[in-house]
């Protein structure tokens, strides 16, 4: 059975907007028994105002590969950052506990960070960008990987043991290597659950982080015209999860970076 990390809750919703699967920590929404949620309308769980906002946001999904996000959402008395994607007529919803208030101007931050990149040398652009992302996210180690997992540029606080890395085509976040996984209840849609950013770590993933002396990791895939060309890979010595909006700013900035690198002659 698949599981999710405890910093987020997961819901799988069918075409009738009823809950088909949920993580056992759904009780953080209030006096709710996880097993009783299965088969219930999502509106009964998160409220009519929240479901209206969520359905409007989900209408932006243009394909099964796209995703939408909403930040600082109030579900009951809890503030979440929400991410949603779909597969055919089913929806995957991840709601992570918000760790910071909304940013004053996320899009303005992306523009400002992009404007601070100078020159036409792809590797120097990458080095400048990794330093900015290091500051933005607070992770100890930030690396720009090519599609084969090679390190194009890095910004680090301290030393990282020698290791090989892989570029993955999905957003993956490991907030705490040693956190107890939360099981999923209900009717699992395996392919869709596999796209969850906060899916619980496999044993080999925990072992690799342990061997590196790291407790947290993050992977942000980078694409040009839909083609995977690399990823931003981050590591931290202690448990860490930067805010979802801050991650989104960094992700958009990094995708603008690789597009600029390609215009300057970089071959992905």
Keywords:
268 residues; alpha+beta; Beta-Lactamase; seven-stranded antiparallel β-sheet; five-stranded antiparallel β-sheet; 8 helices; globular
Summary, kept brief:
This protein has 268 residues and is α+β, with helices and mostly antiparallel strands.
Total strands: the figure is 12
Task: List the strand order in the largest sheet.
Answer: 1-10-3-2-6-5-4
Distance between the termini: 37 Å
Poorly predicted regions are none
Number of helices: 8
Mean pLDDT: 93
Morphology call: globular
Supply the CATH class of the largest domain: Alpha Beta
CATH fold descriptor of the largest domain: Beta-Lactamase
Helicity, as a percent range: 25-40%
The radius of gyration computed from the alpha-carbon positions, rounded to a whole number of angstroms, is 19 Å
State which percent range the strand residues make up: 25-35%
The sequence of SSEs as H and E is EEEHHHEEEHHEEEEHHEEH
| Domain count | 2
User: What CATH architecture of the largest domain would you give?
Assistant: 2-Layer Sandwich
Going by CATH, what is the homologous superfamily of the largest domain? GAF domain
Helix vs. strand class? alpha+beta
**Main sheet record:** 7 strands, antiparallel
What features would you describe in this structure?
- With 268 residues, the chain is an alpha+beta fold.
- It has 2 domains: 3-97, PAS domain (Beta-Lactamase); 106-177 and 214-263, GAF domain (Beta-Lactamase).
- It has 8 helices and 12 strands.
- The strands form 2 sheets. It has a 7-stranded antiparallel sheet with strand order 1-10-3-2-6-5-4. Strands 8-7-12-11-9 form a 5-stranded antiparallel sheet.
- Strand 2 and strand 3 form a beta hairpin.
- Helix 4 packs parallel to helix 8 and helix 5 (122-137) runs antiparallel to helix 8.
């Amino acid at each position: 059975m698949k599981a999710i990390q405890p910093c987020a809750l997961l819901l799988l919703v069918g075409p009738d907007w009823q809950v088909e699967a949920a993580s056992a920590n759904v009780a953080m929404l209030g006096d709710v028994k996880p097993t009783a949620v299965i088969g219930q309308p999502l509106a009964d769980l998160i409220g009519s105002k929240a479901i209206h906002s969520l359905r409007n946001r989900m209408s932006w999904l243009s394909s099964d590969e796209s995703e939408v996000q909403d930040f600082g959402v109030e579900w009951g008395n809890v503030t979440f950052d929400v991410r949603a994607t779909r597969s055919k007529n089913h929806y995957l919803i991840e709601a992570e506990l918000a760790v910071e208030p909304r940013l004053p101007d996320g899009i303005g931050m992306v523009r400002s960070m992009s404007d601070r990149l100078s020159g036409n040398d792809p590797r120097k652009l990458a080095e400048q960008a990794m330093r900015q992302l290091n500051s933005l996210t607070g992770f100890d180690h930030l690396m720009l990987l090519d599609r084969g997992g090679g390190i194009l540029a890095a910004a680090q606080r301290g030393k990282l043991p020698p290791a090989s890395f892989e570029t993955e085509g999905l957003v993956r976040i490991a907030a705490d290597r040693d956190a107890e996984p939360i099981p999923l209840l209900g009717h699992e849609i395996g392919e869709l659950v596999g796209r969850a950013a906060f899916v619980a770590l496999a044993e080999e993933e925990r072992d690799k982080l342990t061997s590196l002396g790291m407790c947290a990791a993050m992977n942000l895939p980078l694409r040009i015209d839909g083609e995977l060309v690399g990823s931003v890979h981050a590591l931290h010595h202690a448990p860490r999860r930067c805010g979802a909006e801050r991650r989104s700013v960094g992700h958009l900035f990094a995708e603008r970076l690789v597009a600029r690198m390609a215009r300057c002659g970089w071959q992905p």
